[in-house]
């Protein structure tokens, strides 16, 4: 799995609909995780938190509404955007879904193109670098579309790993990332890399960011990890 690709979890018990959704999302450049029940969805989120969840309301066992409620109750998962899908098109159902914490709601049948657009809209909020946004922190600018980084107007040369590290940091300034979290986000969950490798690339990122002067913006948090600012 490419660590660059935004991860979308599709939770749909109808196999044909699940595969159509997954096929179209993968064609648009997303890495798709699949679940056919609420229990499987909750397990997948615990193991490998996605960037966006596309969640069917009517699921066997634990319903989509209940899955959403549990995710939004937990500190670790409440920020993951949830797009609820439902054949229930009454306004009261839509309100109930949104009240449970869903970030968006689409009635069935829906347009695949519109769903993909709504997934991208949620990503612009939570992982802007993953959809080509231009991000800034103090005097540092990262253009995700052109893969260009400048500091105080001067172009910096970053390797691909250092670029992904900076993109991760700059999306959430101040957030402390553990080495394990950075390995999952930057290298990918399926690749074995020693945690000390993170320290090596953080050192390279710091060197690149301070090449033309300026204070080191990457903060080491003892016993916890690293943060930007």
Give start-end ranges of low-pLDDT stretches.
none
Query: Strand percentage, roughly?
Result: 15-25%
Describe the global form.
Answer: elongated
- Gap from first CA to last CA: 30 Å
Architecture overview:
The chain is elongated and about 60 Å long. It has helices at residues 15-27, 38-47, 64-73, 91-99, 112-126, 160-171, 179-187, 195-209, and strands spanning 7-11, 31-35, 52-56, 82-86, 104-107, 134-137, 140-143, 148-151, 154-156, 218-221, 225-228. A hairpin with a 2-residue loop joins strand 8 and strand 9 (154-156). The longest helix has 15 residues, at 112-126. The chain has two domains: 7-126, Response regulator (Rossmann fold); 130-228, Winged helix-like DNA-binding domain superfamily/Winged helix DNA-binding domain (Arc Repressor Mutant, subunit A, Orthogonal Bundle). The chain is built from eight helices and eleven strands. Helices cover 41% and strands 21% of the residues. It is of the alpha/beta class and 229 residues long. The mean pLDDT is 89. The protein has a five-stranded parallel β-sheet, sandwiched between helices. Strands 6-7-8-9 form a four-stranded antiparallel β-sheet, with helices on one face.
